[in-house]
Structures are given as structure tokens and as C-alpha cells.
């Protein structure tokens, strides 16, 4: 009987111990259970953009210079003034140029008077030669041959002097025209209708135009009609920008001066003039935009978004789910082989591992890089099943800052995808 009681007690104690161990084990497992953070597949619009920064500039900047030297006598235009074509903007002291005009007018008058004098003498020589020829017709002995030579050569001399007088008049007229042009150049006029965006001179300043043309003003025409935004785009994105230009896709940008305003434009040019800075190659892209309120001013910095793709009513995968790369201990045994063949684009690691991955990328051959480029749209996302992760292969398309288009894959709207694992 005693032995039976002992057996019963031991059985009860063993049972209680077993239950206790199981509870402790369950408690330990629950306490050390990882937390899976998830995001859902959605349906909606995807707008893919390439972001860049640029500088706002007028379409045309017309420098206004001077051809003559001298002190500025009067300044008639200032910053931000609206000027018309041929409007007087400044005047150089014209006194020495007026004096030059007066001098050349006198020279021209002298040349014309000399022409009149030579014309008269030539006419006299012609008359003398004609009378001498008439006398010789009456009687050849009236005048010797030498006398006839004197009349003939005197007339030819005045013929030559008449040509010289005509040439002198042309020279005097050219000198006068030059002086009058220089006098007109003292009036600095706007070559176009526009806005003065720069003034380089002050009243009383002396200009010296002998060696280089001084730049007095810069006039920007049609700023209210059109402005340019000059952006630099990385070579990796320039192909998408050219396709967007071909499709006439819109461009949106903001400026710090008007942060609440969204400006829109179009791609005017993708220039084949690369800039290389610290081994980074960029290409200039010119965006044209209207400016009716003159809110855009030269030199402003623009934050630009080039729309390179847009699709509506598509399934969208959260980008965090595409960036997630699980550890093997959280993955179902059937899917662990996928981890070994995962592409570099699917792996998210700490800084040291990322550096190692970058080195590995640099060591790949050209064919390997091309093959990776073709496969970059083939990815995996992870779903939770019985506390383990299962892989779902997907083909992706357009991407924005939050979602990426699902082109192909066994996913449904509202389905949860793992984006992060929080270990206890």
C-alpha cells in the first residue's frame, strides 16, 4: 500500500513537473518570438519620377556694351526696368565725338571746294586746248607742236586732279560717317524689348573700349513668356529623361521663394555635353516653363521632378517589402535555397556588408553586370506563414518613393508582406 502511495505521489509530481516545463517552454518561446512588421499590397496609381536640382535662367540674356570710350554722362536705366527696343539707357559724354563730327564736316566742305576749284581749272584747260586746236586748223604754223603739248598735258593734269578731288570727297564723307557713328554710339540703346537684370556701370564712371567691349547692362527679353531651368541629370537616369522628352511628359518643380507654388514645364533639350566631377557624369537638361507672374527670377534654385512614367489602377508593392532581406533562421526550409541565389538588389545589410557588396559588384564582369541588369526586375517578397517566411517571386515595373508596380506575381490587393523583423 505504501509503495502504491509513493508511486501515485511521484506520478502527480512528474505530471506537475511536465506541465510546468511545457508552460515554461511556451513562455520562453513566446517571449523570444520575433515580431514581424508588415505592409499591404495596394491598388492605385504609380508615378515614377527622377529628381534633380536646377537653376532658373532667362531664355536669352542680351549683353549691352559700348563701342566708344568716355565717362558716363547720364544713366537712364536701372535694375528691373522694362525697356523697349532702341530705348536710350545711358549716354557717354559726346563732346569729343561732336568735335570729331564738326572736324570731318569741315574736311568734307574743303574737299568739295577743292573739287569745285579743280573743276573750274580743268574747264579752263579744256577751253584753251579747244582754241589751240581751232587755230591749228586755220593755220598749222600759228602754234608749235610743243605749245599744243602744253595745252594737252595741262588738261590731262586737271583730269587727274579731278579724280583726286572726287576721291578726297569720298574719303571725307567716310570720315564724317565714322565720326557720326561714333557720336551715335555714345547713346547706349537697348537692342531688344526686355527687363534689365544686371547693370554694370554707374553715372560718372569712365569706360575704356580700346581693348574689350565693356558690358554695361544685361537685358532679358520675354521673361514673362518663357524661362529656362538648367538641370544636371545623372547618366544612369538620362535614358529615362530622353524617353520622357519623346513622350512630352510634364515636369514639375518648386523654388524656395514660393514653396507653396507648383510650377510645370516641358523638357526642351537633353544636351550631349557631359560634365564629369569626381568621376560622376551628368548631362544638362533644359526645361522650359511659362512665367506670366514673373515669380521665377534668374538664379533661383529649382527642385525638379521629371515624370518618367505613370500607370493607373495597378497593384502596388510597398518598397519596404522589396528592400527586406530575411535571415535564414526565419525562413521556411523550402525557401532557404532562394537566399543563396538572391541578387544584390534584394539584399539589405549593415554598412560593412553593404561595402562588401559594393566591392563584389565592382569585381563583376561586363557580362555579369548586363545579366544583372536584365534580371533587376525579378525579385522576391516575403509573406508570413505559420511563423515562418515564405518567398513569393514577383516581376516589378515602375516605382515611386513608396510603392513599386507589380507586373507579375501571385499577390492580391490587401495581402500583407513582411517589411521588417524585430528580434526579441
Walk me through this protein's architecture.
- It contains 8 helices and 20 strands.
- With 424 residues, it is of the alpha+beta class.
- It has 4 domains: 32-44 and 315-422, no CATH class; 50-59 and 222-312, Beta Barrel (Elongation Factor Tu (Ef-tu), domain 3), CATH 2.40.30; 64-93 and 190-221, OB fold (Dihydrolipoamide Acetyltransferase, E2P) (Beta Barrel); 94-185.
- The strands form 4 sheets. Strands 2-11-15-13-12-16 form a 6-stranded antiparallel barrel.
- Strand 14 and strand 15 (280-289) form a beta hairpin.
- Mean pLDDT is 86; it is low at 348-356.
Concise summary:
By secondary structure, the protein is of the alpha+beta class. The protein has helices at residues 2-31, 95-138, 145-185, 238-246, 319-323, 336-340, 351-362, 366-374; strands at residues 35-40, 42-58, 62-65, 70-75, 82-83, 88-92, 187-189, 194-199, 206-207, 215-220, 227-234, 250-255, 258-270, 275-277, 280-289, 301-318, 378-385, 388-399, 403-409, 416-422.
The average pLDDT score comes to 86
Instruction: Give me the Rg, rounded.
Output: 46 Å
> Percentage of helical residues?
25-40%
Number of strands: 20
Q: What does the overall shape look like? A: rod-shaped
Amino acid at each position: 500500500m505504501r509503495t502504491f502511495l509513493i508511486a501515485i505521489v511521484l506520478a502527480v509530481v512528474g505530471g506537475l513537473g511536465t506541465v510546468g516545463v511545457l508552460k515554461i517552454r511556451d513562455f520562453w518561446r513566446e517571449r523570444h518570438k520575433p515580431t514581424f512588421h508588415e505592409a499591404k499590397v495596394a491598388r492605385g496609381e504609380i508615378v515614377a519620377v527622377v529628381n534633380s536640382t536646377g537653376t532658373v535662367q532667362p531664355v536669352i540674356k542680351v549683353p549691352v556694351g559700348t563701342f566708344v570710350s568716355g565717362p558716363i554722362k547720364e544713366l537712364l536705366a536701372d535694375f528691373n526696368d522694362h525697356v523697349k527696343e532702341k530705348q536710350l539707357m545711358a549716354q557717354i559724354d559726346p563732346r569729343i565725338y561732336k568735335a570729331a563730327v564738326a572736324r570731318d564736316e569741315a574736311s568734307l566742305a574743303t574737299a568739295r571746294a577743292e573739287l569745285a576749284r579743280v573743276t573750274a581749272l580743268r574747264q579752263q584747260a579744256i577751253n584753251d586746248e579747244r582754241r589751240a586746236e581751232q587755230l591749228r586748223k586755220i593755220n598749222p604754223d600759228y602754234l608749235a607742236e610743243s605749245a599744243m603739248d602744253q595745252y594737252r598735258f595741262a588738261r590731262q593734269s586737271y583730269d587727274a586732279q579731278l579724280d583726286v578731288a572726287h576721291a578726297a570727297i569720298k574719303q571725307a564723307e567716310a570720315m564724317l560717317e565714322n565720326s557720326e557713328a561714333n557720336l551715335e554710339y555714345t547713346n547706349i540703346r537697348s537692342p531688344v524689348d526686355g527687363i534689365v537684370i544686371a547693370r554694370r556701370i554707374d553715372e560718372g564712371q569712365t569706360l575704356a573700349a580700346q581693348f574689350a567691349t565693356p558690358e554695361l547692362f544685361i537685358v532679358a527679353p520675354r521673361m514673362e513668356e518663357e524661362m529656362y531651368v538648367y538641370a544636371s541629370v545623372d547618366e544612369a537616369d538620362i535614358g529615362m529623361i530622353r524617353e520622357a522628352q519623346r513622350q512630352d511628359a510634364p515636369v514639375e518643380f518648386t523654388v524656395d521663394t514660393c514653396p507653396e507654388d507648383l510650377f510645370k514645364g516641358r523638357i526642351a533639350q537633353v544636351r550631349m555635353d557631359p560634365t564629369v566631377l569626381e568621376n560622376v557624369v551628368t548631362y544638362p537638361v533644359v526645361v522650359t516653363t511659362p512665367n506670366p507672374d514673373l515669380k521665377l527670377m534668374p538664379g533661383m534654385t529649382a527642385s525638379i521632378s521629371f515624370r518618367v512614367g505613370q500607370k493607373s489602377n495597378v497593384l502596388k508593392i510597398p518598397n519596404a517589402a522589396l528592400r527586406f532581406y530575411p535571415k535564414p533562421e526565419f525562413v521556411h526550409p523550402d525557401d532557404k535555397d532562394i537566399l543563396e541565389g538572391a541578387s544584390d538588389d534584394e539584399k539589405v545589410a549593415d554598412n560593412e556588408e553593404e561595402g562588401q557588396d559594393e566591392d563584389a559588384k565592382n569585381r563583376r564582369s561586363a557580362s555579369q553586370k548586363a545579366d544583372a541588369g536584365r534580371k533587376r526586375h525579378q525579385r522576391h517578397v516575403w509573406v508570413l506563414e505559420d511563423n515562418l517566411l515564405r518567398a513569393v517571386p514577383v516581376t516589378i515595373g515602375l516605382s515611386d518613393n513608396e510603392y513599386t508596380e507589380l507586373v507579375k506575381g501571385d499577390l492580391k490587393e490587401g495581402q500583407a508582406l513582411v517589411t521588417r523583423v524585430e528580434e526579441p
